[in-house]
Amino acid sequence: MAVNVVESKEWYLAGYAADGVPTTDHLTLRSVPLSLSLDSIPDAHVAVQLLFISVDPYLRTRMSGQEDGLYFPQFSLNQVITAFGVGRVMRSKDEKYSEGDIVLNAFFPVAEYCVVPSSVLIRKIDPEAGIPLPEYLSCLGVPGFAAWVGIEVLGEAKPGSNAFISAAAGGVGMVAGQLAKLKGCRVIGSTGSDAKVRLIKEEFGYDDAFNYNKEVDFDATLSKYFPNGIDIYLENVGSKMLEAVLNHVNPHARIPVCGMISQYNQIWTEREGVRNLLNIVGKEVRMEGFLVGSYLDRFADFTVEMEGYLKQGKISSKIKIYEGIQSFAESLGSLFSSSNFGKVVIEVNKPR
Amino acid sequence: MAVNVVESKEWYLAGYAADGVPTTDHLTLRSVPLSLSLDSIPDAHVAVQLLFISVDPYLRTRMSGQEDGLYFPQFSLNQVITAFGVGRVMRSKDEKYSEGDIVLNAFFPVAEYCVVPSSVLIRKIDPEAGIPLPEYLSCLGVPGFAAWVGIEVLGEAKPGSNAFISAAAGGVGMVAGQLAKLKGCRVIGSTGSDAKVRLIKEEFGYDDAFNYNKEVDFDATLSKYFPNGIDIYLENVGSKMLEAVLNHVNPHARIPVCGMISQYNQIWTEREGVRNLLNIVGKEVRMEGFLVGSYLDRFADFTVEMEGYLKQGKISSKIKIYEGIQSFAESLGSLFSSSNFGKVVIEVNKPR
């Protein structure tokens, strides 16, 4: 018999974290009763059991309360956090969805269960496609799409381009490097540990990589790895690495700016500035920030291409799965340590 | 009877100026004999008497000797400086040019006379067109073309866009503001004196303008002048103004980077950095450096459009003319003081 009321644990924002890594002072778990009886669900809504939730660095930027400085829309205090996720439809008041459908949504509550308008669902997933569900949050999700927009749309990757990927073993970086290789680029990555250097060279096919924690002079490092200069820099870290890159860019280099993880835990006035932006004039560099939400008209093209790569084994991903909704704060914190490998996901409920 | 040998005074680079405004320690005038006899002129070359030379801020960036930090090709030591100019053909070994033709060249020696390959000449000027010759170095020259590329090509100016022009009373800025107005933008300028604020509002049609020397908090200033945010920022100054702008950009703002005059006289490691570049992610800003030399395939389109505006009186320019080749160093220095108005030009020889 169908359960009609569940206790759903969810994460809400108890306080903004102006700087530092958010802790349970800022992110708090609570339990709320949620009615799943069909007559309590509004028309054109569905009740969903969350299966997997995507944990991405951009979430941090929505918790600072520094609207002016950071320019990402802030989560509201005492409201549930939202994130990209995969869920299973439990009840439906929309004839396009049925119980058991597996669905994707960019703004699921970080919760065990929810009731959402069916209009927010991106699409159904075919469980027979042979792709593990967490992959829909990795190569086929926010990080994969960000990598695709960065490398293929804004980076204009071409055979022979020299591509540099920062945060190269992270969720975006590992996919970006593989995409750039598929486009014929020479690809170098920077990452935060020797183990990750090995990972991206051995598993993700980077031509070479370095551990930025061991480099004392990024300028010298880039001279060594880019004797012919940099044509594409997928920017994920900011500050000193960007400054070094701007001393090695080739004419008409592209710098798609996906994020700047080194900057998320600092108030902007306390960050180190980039002093050599003038170089973008002489080298005619195009530096462009992007949010994947602005490219959703390309999401279907991306999905077709990426599903093809996955089925042909041309792209793979490494996914770190944290168990249970209670692991959200810890998993988010892990993104800001050098220990994190690949894409971070929470498994909220076991898929049946 | 034709003169066969002239003494031509020319400016050469005696030493690089890593920082500060170049002085006569770095820029030195010398006199060299130049044969103008037809048999001494190589085939496909012309002998030219310089009439007007364009004095632009980018020239400074070619005198630092800091190739890595600045990324502009450096002038060679002991070689003559080159600049955009207008000259009169005195002798021709190319049937396309005749004595008396008025010609444009992007790389004339900063000299009284020269012999150059005819292939470097951009075009002949029709003296009957009714446009004063210095205007070919202003609205129709490097600064006018830079303004056009910045506002129309990269800035994608549209009716209703909020456009902000820095160095607004300078050679590029005065044209950029007028072009943005013609495209239907709301245009605000920043400049370095109250007299220039009046000039750009009264003569160049800026909707409003401010004297940055009187503003203590650029963030507050931009809040006042851009209650609806900034869609286009034509970057000509860098540093603190750019930082303030990045706190006021609208989604998908364009920042064509023409130059950063506040940065030219400092070694890059000593400049103040820009700390809030992360904002270009959240607002999806496109920041793009450009050199007009890369857009020469559009120069003819630009010329047609700009000549039309000039003839219709829709665009005007203010030109400060320094007399004589000896005024080059002083005129270049004037660009880095707040006292400079409009486009700076040297009149080398009087047009006949």
Automatic annotation (TrEMBL), chains A, B:
SMART domains: PKS_ER (SM00829)
Keywords carried by this UniProt record: Oxidoreductase
PANTHER family found in the cross-reference section: 2-ALKENAL REDUCTASE (NADP(+)-DEPENDENT)-LIKE, PROSTAGLANDIN REDUCTASE
Entry protein name: Enoyl reductase (ER) domain-containing protein
Residue ranges constituting the Enoyl reductase (ER) domain according to the UniProt record: 23-346
Listed InterPro entries: ADH-like_C, ADH_N_2, ER, GroES-like_sf, MDR_fam, NAD(P)-bd_dom_sf
GO MF entries: 2-alkenal reductase [NAD(P)H] activity
Organism: Gossypium darwinii
Domain of life: Eukaryota
Xref: Pfam families: ADH_N_2, ADH_zinc_N
Lineage, top ranks: Eukaryota, Viridiplantae, Streptophyta, Embryophyta, Tracheophyta
Gene3D superfamilies: Medium-chain alcohol dehydrogenases, catalytic domain, NAD(P)-binding Rossmann-like Domain
